[in-house]
Write a structure and sequence with these properties.
single chain; globular
């Protein structure tokens, strides 16, 4: 048995129940959006608990970046798949998504019951700024551990970061080209140098769904399309949702849509869980379940179908080089996203100070729990929001 086969056959250092509980906890208290959630998984599963190897984490990040759907949810599913296969991916995926889904459905009920949540904007004012600091620290740590001092990876990192910052979007071809470049330079195929092997990634088709109620069918179809076509960060789905929910179907007003995004940002778990809130506003509890199912089904399929390929061949030099390139590009996009998001969340001196304070706190006290920072930022938002200060004045 080769060393690679032996590594794959080694028994896990944890039970499926422990991984499922970890996913439940992360989905319950993990703030900061997909970038921060991916950083938490690296910190906890790779560095602290050592349940997952760095190579497996990189493969999961690559798969999550290359396949459409919310990055954090796909990465969590792959972490469950590493040692426990389809059963692990399924249980971990549900455990990761369910807590925040329950939260946004509860907030949806309150929103409908009390005709809007005005205080949410004040909370988001502070939380959004703190989230920028959390994402910046996560990007720094990922860069230090994965890019290191490798000049080629730094070039890919900087190019990807610049493109993301300028275009305000994540372009999947940048990730692919980054992977191909490192593959060709570090582990070229036979037709170039006589070493290595070529590889390809299979695409999958989204199965059709049959729903009896016309509105639920439309909701499922729209959100399944969103989950199947939007790549990378959960925030990338927001413009797509706006175009369909507000402009095309007129299910929500612009004010309601902005509130839905705010709900996603002030609750833990994946940002894309805002689909549950939107679905609730459109069609109640059935709408929330259908919207969430439509969004997460494609990303589940796009994770479990290619996963065996990554497990079998991820250690080969050609695939490892491709993974390194994609990872560098992905981290560059994360760094670029910090710049993009800061334009929206850091709008004045108070929010700038909150973001700087979050960076300083996490740098000075690495073990400080992010929920504590988010809670303090929420309180500061309630106290410092311009509308609150105007009323006090």
């Amino acid at each position: 048995m080769s060393s690679t086969d032996a590594a794959l056959a080694a028994p896990p250092r944890y039970t499926l129940w422990q991984m499922t509980l970890y996913a439940w906890k992360l989905g319950s208290i993990g703030f900061g959006g997909p970038v921060a959630l991916a950083g938490y998984m690296y910190r906890d599963l790779v560095e602290r608990l050592r349940w997952v190897s760095e190579a497996d984490y990189k493969e999961g990040m690559t798969l999550a970046q290359l396949m459409p759907g919310p990055l954090a949810a796909q990465l969590a599913m792959y972490m469950g798949y590493v040692h426990y296969g389809l059963r692990g991916a399924s249980l971990v995926g549900v455990a990761f998504v369910l807590p925040s889904f329950c939260m946004v459905v509860a907030l949806g009920w309150l929103y409908v019951r009390f005709q809007g949540l005005a205080w949410m904007q004040a909370v988001f004012y502070g939380v959004g700024a703190a989230v920028i600091g959390i994402i910046a620290i996560s990007a720094f740590r990922l860069t230090r551990s994965n890019v290191g001092r490798d000049p080629l990876l730094w070039i890919i990192f900087l190019v990807s970061g610049t493109i993301t910052a300028v275009t305000a979007s994540e372009i999947v071809w940048v990730f692919v080209l980054g992977g191909v470049l490192v593959w060709l330079l570090r582990a070229p195929p036979k037709w170039l140098s006589g070493a290595g092997t070529a590889s390809s990634i299979a695409a999958t088709a989204l199965p059709a769904a049959n729903v009896d109620w016309t509105l639920l069918a439309n909701i499922f179809g729209f959100f399944a399309k969103a989950g199947a076509l939007v790549f990378g960060s959960g925030l990338a789905i927001v413009p797509f949702l706006y175009g369909g929910v507000v402009a095309e179907h007129h299910w929500l007003t612009e004010r309601q849509f902005v509130d839905a995004v705010a709900v996603a940002m002030i609750t833990p778990g994946p940002v894309v869980i805002t689909v549950g809130f939107i679905g609730y506003l459109v069609a109640g509890l059935p709408g929330a379940f259908v919207a969430a199912a439509g969004t997460f089904l494609p990303c589940y399929l796009f994770t479990i179908i290619p996963a065996p390929y990554f497990k079998r061949h991820g250690k080969r030099p050609a695939v490892a080089a491709f993974v390194d390139g994609v990872t560098a590009a992905a981290i560059g996009a994360i760094a670029g996203a910090v710049i993009v998001l800061s334009h929206r969340s850091v709008a004045d001196l108070p929010t700038l100070l909150i973001a700087i304070a979050a960076v300083f706190a996490l740098s000075r006290f690495p073990k400080l729990p992010e929920p504590a920072i988010v809670a303090i930022a929420a309180l500061l938002g309630l106290l410092l929001h311009p509308q609150v200060l105007h009323r006090l004045g």
